[in-house]
Write a structure and sequence with these properties.
The protein has 509 residues and is an alpha+beta fold. Helices cover 23% and strands 41% of the residues. It is built from eleven helices and 21 strands. A hairpin with a 5-residue loop joins strand 17 and strand 18. It is globular. The N terminus is likely disordered. Keywords: Carboxypeptidase, Hydrolase, Protease. It comes from Flavobacterium hiemivividum.
């Protein structure tokens, strides 16, 4: 009897454990054993998932039953259909077989397609395939932003002070050194996750269609070190406050760098900062408007029809294209596979395109800056002590056909951008009096890399009406600040599985 009781207990325990936990799987290449990033996982009939950069994905609790069906696909590989029960028996690993081949291998054509003719057709059909629809839609979106501040060098030293004692000067330099050392040894990073319903439609005004959108935030979290930020603006404020603590808190100052002076007045006076905060509060947009504006810009910049950055689609004369073969799409149609690289100096990117044979829509692109290439380069290092350039620009974007009108919408995007900054300049803090006088002067030298990665997933899409959108009342929201990643927060949703760096991050006060 005791043995039966123990077996029954553990059976029930395992059953409870099985239905209470999110299921995590990994997608790999059957030929190489390597993980497959950004593969599409259709869950049941409505929701979509994408594997992360390490090939992992997580099913929500609601979709962890054995009978739930999964359709796993990735352009260039053969689609695989299975159930959650089969996933468990496969030890949570799904192998996809490569599926790129020459068209003549399947007797579609005996003539090798011309990649430049394919790209000419892509351009000719951009407006049709990616037009901004007027129909109203409701999209369940997941949006993740990861920000990194990676300093190589930060040196700040006050070399001259008027009216400061020697001890005060030493204390100021000590505080600045501690501030810079902390940044280098523990570089700040920040992870923001947002799940929302996004409603959009086009309304005609003055013979022009304008986007009208509304956002309903369902969950929003922010993971970062408390009191720290990964943005240059926030870090500049922190450094400025460190220096201001050693100035007279009852006076007003401005700062000057070489020939360049600031018109901004700075001070630690309570009445001064209280008034400034009031002004900022009046001007400050709420979190919802700021987030929606950022999302709208991201959608526009990632649209093949509207983007100015993705010139390998719009300015084909700048690039060399090569036909690599063909593959099946999820709809059992063919897609051409083209690689591209710069032909002229204005071209910056290399990568790969997957293009529908039926309507010449770009179904997917993987792109990155060619080695050594930079964008928006500004180099006045020897004259002004300033150098900056965008040294990272890469991404993966996938588009999916709409069922209602055969145009395309962005289903997934992973965009990474990075900026390099070098600054080596003298700074002065000047007291504002009837006769200006130097308060302190210092030397600032810094070399940093700032980068961000944005991931976007359209989890489900449905029709609605402009009238229904008009009735929706938007509400502002606040981020839930968390000190470490907790998968329980997203147990009811198919959010994008985070990378190990996010899972291992723990907030340090």
């Amino acid at each position: 009897m005791r043995t039966i009781f123990i077996i029954t207990f553990f059976t029930l325990l395992n059953f409870q454990f099985g239905i209470a936990q999110n299921i995590k799987g990994k997608i790999i290449d059957s030929a190489t054993g390597e993980s497959i990033p950004y593969a599409n996982i259709k869950v049941g009939e409505s929701e979509n998932l994408v594997s992360n950069a390490e090939g992992y994905f997580t099913l929500s609790e609601n979709n962890s039953r054995d009978e739930v069906e999964l359709a796993v696909s990735y352009l260039g590989f053969v689609q695989r259909l299975l159930t959650v029960g089969e996933l468990k028996r496969l030890n949570y690993r799904i192998e996809l077989a490569p599926g790129v081949f020459q068209l003549n291998d399947v007797k579609v054509s005996n003539e090798k397609p011309n990649p430049y003719e394919i790209m000419a057709n892509v351009k000719a059909n951009l407006a049709r395939n990616y037009k901004n629809e007027t129909a109203a839609s409701k999209d369940l979106l997941f949006y993740r932003k990861s920000d990194y501040f990676k300093p190589k060098l930060i040196e700040v030293e006050i070399d001259k002070s008027t009216g400061f004692t020697k001890q005060a000067l030493q204390k100021a330099n000590s505080d600045l050194k501690r501030f810079s050392t902390q940044l280098i040894s523990n570089p700040p990073m920040e992870f923001t996750d947002i799940l929302c319903n996004y409603y959009s439609t086009k309304t005609k005004k003055n013979d022009k269609f304008q986007l009208s959108s509304k956002m309903e935030v369902l969950k929003a979290t922010k993971l970062k070190n408390e009191g720290r930020s990964s943005s240059l603006e926030e870090l500049q404020k922190a450094a400025m406050n460190t220096m201001l603590q050693h100035l007279d808190s009852t006076k007003y100052y401005r700062f000057k760098s070489g020939l360049f002076g600031s018109r901004d007045t700075i001070s630690l006076r309570k009445d001064f900062n209280r008034n400034r905060n009031k002004d900022k509060t009046k001007e400050k947009t709420n979190q919802l408007l700021s987030t929606k504006s950022s999302l709208n810009s991201f959608l526009s910049d990632s649209n093949f029809l509207e983007s100015n950055e993705l010139d390998f689609i719009n300015n084909t004369e700048l690039y060399d294209y090569k036909y690599e073969g063909a593959t099946y799409t999820n709809d059992n149609e063919f897609a051409y596979v083209l690689s591209f690289k710069p032909r002229r100096s204005k071209a910056k990117y290399l990568g790969k395109l997957y293009i529908s044979e039926t309507d010449y829509a770009v179904l997917r692109t993987d792109y990155t800056l060619e080695e050594g290439e930079k964008l928006n380069n500004f180099n006045m290092k020897f004259l002004l002590g300033i150098k900056t350039s965008q040294n990272i620009s890469k991404g993966t974007i996938t588009y999916k056909k709409k069922s209602e009108d055969d145009t395309y919408y962005m289903q997934y995007a992973a965009i990474e951008q990075g900026q390099y900054f070098y600054l080596n300049r003298p700074l002065k803090f000047i007291e504002l009096t009837s006769s200006e006088k130097d308060v302190l002067s210092l030397d600032l030298k810094m070399e940093v890399n700032v980068s961000s990665k944005t991931e976007f997933l359209n989890m489900s899409r449905s029709k609605t009406t402009a009238a229904a959108i008009e009735k929706i009342k938007e509400a502002d929201f606040k981020f839930t600040n968390i000190k470490s990643y907790d998968p329980k927060i997203w147990k009811d949703y198919n959010a994008i599985e985070p990378l190990q760096e996010m899972k291992q991050f723990k907030s340090i006060n």
